[in-house]
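Forwarding these from the shared drive since the link keeps breaking.
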Amino acid sequence: MLRTHTCGELRLKNEGEKVTLCGWVHRRRDHGGLIFIDLRDRYGITQIVTGPEDKDAFAMMEKTRPEWVLCVTGTVGKRKEGAARKDNPTGDIEILVSAVTPLNEAKTPPFEIDLEGEINEELRLQYRYLDMRRIKLKDNLVLRHKLLQAVRRFFYDRDFIEVETPILIKGTPEGAREYVVPSRVYHGLFYVLPQSPQQLKQLSMVGGLDRYMQIARCFRDEDLRGDRQPEFTQMDLEMSFVTAEDVMGINEEALISITKEVRPDVKIRSVPFPRMSWEEAMGTYGSDKPDLRFGLEFTDVTDLSKGSGFGIFAKTAEGGGVVKALRVPEGAALSRKDIDELTETAKVYGAKGLAWIKSAKRGYEGVPVDKLGADLTKKMAEKAGMKDGDILFFTADTFEVACLSLGAVRSDIAKRKKLADPNVFAFAWITDFPMFEIEKETGELQAMHHPFTRPKDADLPLLEKEPLKVKAEAYDIVLNGYEIGGGSVRIHERALQKQIFDILKVSDEDAERRFGHMLKAFEYGAPPHGGIAWGLDRMAMLYAGEPNIREVIAFPKDQKGKDLLLGAPSVIPEKQLKELGVKIMKA
């Protein structure tokens, strides 16, 4: 090794030792008679110092500039009284330099690496190797490593085996658009990159592996946002001879253990994790991934709205919709501008508007008050627990639109009032999802999760005539307003799987073409099984306290799916396209 120690290793106990360090020039300070350099590597920062009495070392340190790579030899010394840095683990010592060897010079970086302020993200992604030198990103990547290490260790210790599944697989469309890879050997045929190892981990159960886990790379060609990337990492898990309770139980144990190891400073809000049905989560918080670090629960005032003088409320309640109210303590202080902005937030999710009532000692005020009348307004206010200085927001629409739009308002208010404690982790299980939902564009039934999810046994008689009433043996784990994992008990019988395909209008021919391998496997003694997948990028984002997953991925794509560092996607030479049997057509 060129070095005897790292830049984060030395302490007062090493005083008097001769050492050699290697690293980058983080900062350089010339104090006339003395030159100080903060030398940085992955492990930390150590101050080195020399004076003019050592001519060669002094001359070399005079020449150095930020991000030069140095090899430094010297003696560990105690810093002078008052010069120690308590915010740095090596802050009690410095290296009295006897020799400096430049290993590489550096151009002036396009941004200052020693500053942790805001830097243009495009520039950071273009020079990601420089961005990695910054302490914040480096710490995020180390945290991600610890997270993955803790995940593997927990499940390895409980007899799970890691099985690597292939990246090039057969296309079996299950929802998101797939990335397609042309075959060079078989012109006109294609592989796809897996959206998840879902079918392969189920086949591992048919193979008798019993307990499987994998840190898996997955790919989805879909519109991006802060918590999505075209390629992402999952922890996939599958177990044989289990119920939903078994899967949730070991996952809850894992998340508690991993959180204590990776983020021992945070408080887990509730153990055991609270559970609520999908309908309860939507109806109470307006989200199937509610942030439970704060309250702001909804009150249902649908019954009170029937026959009321406020036409929008009455028509919605009598037509099978819902009227939901959200009480915001001390929300009467919100300005008209605030209310208008919150109304626009609700409209994004389909609401036609946002009604409101303010409470004060002089009475109630707001658009619906006159039409609802004093008595009905008071009843609604009392049902919602309204106090002086509060405001009630209302949405009236279908269950989904009313809940989602008011849920968006809830989240917006929480951000404005800073209600979510960043040092609290509020896990929760969401259960009893609908088995099917209506696809908005086609009006056809589709599986809410995926077509291999098992219906609840009690609802099997409803499959043929009332499929929208069927609940699934599915469960999501949520954390602080994000879904971090989702799973289910699977179908393991060919007959039941065919019945689900029939309901989804997947023909026998299409089912055989897309899922024949699964159907065939179910004929050879498939055991009951269930599992889950965690979104590890999203978890790392939350554990690191970052606003998007690009901050915890070493080489992410930008918001448009471009790799600014390598320049992908890029043009493929005509010769290579010809080998693949691919021709580019003009759009």
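-- next protein --
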Amino acid sequence: MNLQNPLIVQSDMSVLLETMGPLYEEVRDFLSQFAELRKSPEYLHTYALTPLSLWNAASAGLKVAEIVEGLEKYSKYDVPPNVITEVRELMRRFGTIKLVKNLDTGDEILVSKDVNAISEIMASPHVRAFVENEISANEIKLKPGTRGRVKQVLIKLGYPVEDLAGYVEGDKLEVELREQTIGGRGFGLREYQRDASEIFYAGGSTAGGSGVLVLPCGAGKTVIGMACMTQVRQHTLILTTNLTALRQWRREILDKTSLREEEIGEYSGEIKDVKPVTLTTYQILTYKRRKNDAFLHMDLFQKYNWGLIIYDEVHLLPAPVFRAASEIQARRRLGLTATLVREDGKEDEVFSLIGPKKYDKPWKELERQGWIAKALCMEIRVPMKEELRHEYAVAELRNKYRISMENPNKIPVVTRLLEKHKEDQVLIIGQYLDQLEQVRAKTGAPIITGETPNDEREVLYAAFKKGEIKVLIVSKVANFAVDLPDASVAIQISGTYRSRQEETQRLGRVLRPKSGDNNAFFYSVVTRDTKDQECAKNRSLFLTEQGYRYRITILNEENFDKADFSFEEAEEAVFEPGGAAEEEIVEEEEAAI
């Protein structure tokens, strides 16, 4: 027992972490390897040891002994014996069932040293549907083409499969990383970028070749993707979130690899050009003319001999792409993301079909090393005028969100923040187009929405990068994969309800390293005591887990025109999503929305 330690490990697999002691950051980084943050009030954070968090830890090479040793080292009290047993048993399950290939026959076989595990999974009718025959008490031969689907079923049964069945070889691709970019700048992989790509490839063995690399926005995930391409050296299909991201990938590949224009194809709504490296979007792959029609372009996965498929922003994979991924398990698969959080709870689908988490770099570590900017986060809570407050009080649930998020009192706050940061490059980000148009009318800044043609977007992005435009208003279209390295301030005036991934991506717009003090500022303007404020609590959760502290500025009638939004004078944030009761509220909200 050591009462100076910051951890309390509880028998229900929850872990409490005190935030005020000198060991807080060290222990937070330790927990982030194998636990999920659930609540983050200012003094005591709550983590959960979940099957998926422990399986991801096991797949990334973390050992049971390291977890147990750390828990015992940092805990105030004795670690409950059942927690140690449960951690050991859950982590042992990763790899209890392995998927291998018979090199002579090509058969895919589930194997296990634990005959009871084989008996247990064979008792499931969902597994038996994919079984050709039982070879022995330790081996099951699968029906052809069921590799992905059986992994989906087995993880639901508590058996995450270690897939060692290997890969087919794609068409060869000669590609190298440049030592100098086309623009004449020196170029080389950072140490963590090299580590991530090597861990993914694993020397070409069956232990590598499929998995997810988790790094913060601005850390160079595109560069890591290109590094993986140079190791696999086979034809590559790259899936991106939108046309802007697609063309950014193209520019980066041309700038930093030996590939030529004629070797890179674009498969989009505008162009259908398949080349050794082909870039496409999730939207075009999931396009169909009518609801009940087949997907017109999904055969892009199977029609060509890809050796590597890269899923950019893998946490956004739409369901049809998941289904396609289940059919192409023999291709190497790389997922890139800043967060594995999915609001639909399908993280286990990413684990099964793209691969487990192979690499996860703490945001604050990269910040300390200067690879990403130091972010200062503030939530500004604004009041609602009395006449609007009454309208909000009697509104249906769906309208409560919109009324509170479109609060007109947010706009003068935005103009004052722009005055404070008049020398900086500022992004104003929102959910509702009417609200964004009001901001444009007030500030005169240009706006990019889903209706803005791609050519016009590119012109505005380029002008912003050059500093010709100091303020740019953007809707959700800029949440993902928009490279605006000089943006140092983001002002969020409305968001997608409780989306943790969106908050993460929006902060990511300003995290690229800056000259000088390397600071970036993230402001979230929310309406006090409303659904808007409730949603903001949940949106901030992932960033809190990464070590970001939100400061709180509360505006009222007395200080509305006087607050200077100083980080020194703001209060510490209190973010505490609830438990079961909140889950019921979330379900109600989703139904309403």
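The CA atoms of residues 308 and 332 lie 5 Å apart. Residues 7-93 form one domain.

- D.
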